[in-house]
Amino acid sequence: MTIIRKIALMILLASVVLVGCMSHHHTIGRGPSANLQVSKRQSYLLSVVPMGELDTKGMAKGSDNYEIYTRADVLDYCIALLTCGLISTRRVTVTR
């Protein structure tokens, strides 16, 4: 196996293993009463500066009881890898 293939395999394995390690659950009020979900992707420049506005209260459409689930998936790691870490992303899902 060539060195490039070994490196590509290591990156692929690392991205698969690391996928589940970045997730957060927040329950607002009593939590979701229906299974209505809205998902959007939040982007950051240098992992600090938000690029665009993501309003979870607006995604809940005025509901007082909902759940926010934030996670990084394989696509997020690929974006960070392709931009050499300049841009990082995460998926935010609101269930109301």
Can you describe what's shown?
This protein has 3 helices and 5 strands; from the N terminus they run H-E-E-E-H-E-H-E. Strands 1-4-5-2-3 form a 5-stranded antiparallel sheet, with helices on one face. The longest helix is centred in the N-terminal third of the chain and has 16 residues. The protein starts with a helix and ends with a strand. The mean pLDDT is 87. The chain has one domain. 30% of the residues lie in helices and 34% in strands. Strand 2 and strand 3 form a beta hairpin. With 96 residues, the protein is an alpha+beta fold.
Q: What class, by secondary structure content? A: alpha+beta
Number of separate helices: 3
**Strand residues, percent:** 25-35%
Instruction: Tell me the number of structural domains.
Output: 1
N to C succession of SSEs: HEEEHEHE
Overall pLDDT:
87
Strand order of the largest sheet: 1-4-5-2-3
Radius of gyration over alpha carbons? 16 Å
Uncertain segments: none
Record field, number of beta strands: 5
N/C terminus separation? 49 Å
Overall shape: it is elongated
Major sheet details: 5 strands, antiparallel
As a percent range, the share of helical residues equals 25-40%
Summarize the structure.
By secondary structure, this protein is α+β, with helices and mostly antiparallel strands.
Q: What keywords describe this structure?
A:
96 residues, alpha+beta, 34% strand, elongated
Task: Describe how the helices and strands are arranged.
Elements: H1 3-18, E1 23-28, E2 37-45, E3 49-51, H2 56-59, E4 66-71, H3 74-82, E5 87-95
Antiparallel strand pairs: 1-4, 2-3, 2-5, 4-5
